[in-house]
Design a protein that fits this description.
10 helices; mainly alpha; 2 domains; flat; about 0% strand; Four Helix Bundle (Hemerythrin (Met), subunit A)
Length: about 350
Amino acid sequence: MQNPNLSPLLLQYRLALFTCLLAFAVVLLGAYVRLSDAGLGCPDWPGCYGRMIVPSNEALLTDVQAPFPDRPFHSGKAWKEMAHRYLAGSLGAAILSLAILAWRRRDDSRQPLLLPTVLLALVILQAALGMWTVTLLVKPAIVTAHLLGGFATFVLVWLLALKLSAADPPRMPETTPSRRWGIRVAIMVLLLQISLGGWTSTNYAALACSEFPACYAGEWWPEMDFHEAFILWRGLGVNYEFGVLENDARTAIHMTHRLGALVTAVTLALLAWRLTQRRSTASARKMGYLLLALLTLQIGFGITNVLAHLPLAVAVAHNGGAALLLLILVTLNQVSRQRK
């Protein structure tokens, strides 16, 4: 007979899994909005042209456009942006529910309390970053921080689900200190690469190089301006839609992201190789092969983005692949800590 005391934890576990899927959808939709140049589809926040639903009545268009003479109304972009906000709002409601359920059961020693609280604070910060993304005219530093916050929300909800799960964690090979540090180094390298990817996207540098493995015109190391490329803050009032950097600066960002991709690929491939060794358990080998397969797919997405001139579906999948790679590494780290 099932212990009735497990029921609230089981409810939270299922809600956490649903919230994790919701967070992944928000990450993908956010990438789609950004890559389809719809980040300023609504020039205000939280509504769109002063309304919580995108205006569709032709008689309203003149009225809603009047306060924003510099932002012509584009129904398609506005709907993309508002769809992202609606989905992000649903994610916030789900995380709030998890936090409320956790605090109501705070006297139970099995109840995770810190993670739901951190997630609630993070989703509030994400809402502020979403607002600043619009009001500060898609400033790269803000948009990149918003991207990283989305990834953090995704993996932290997954960690919460792991903690709430009543199932035994997958068994890992002997978790020596060097192995645990290897996983943590891989996480840090991947996070740095994700940050570079966000900086590349928000500065419209993804197509600064049109060839692979060379950059363009057969040049492997063209003229680049690294100083301009990595200025994080350029003051207020600058509209960053479609970018403000010259080509040399964009090329510097793109090439830095390529070099980061090389370092990340080597780091993660080595970790996957260690996981697939004979002395590893079957679960560890499966995770190693999964990591290697996803890494290969992610590299393919990156190369395709360059050679096919950033097809939207592949670019969005590239964002999703990065999120899943991070999920695998965070899971490995959590399991190694449990085995310790």
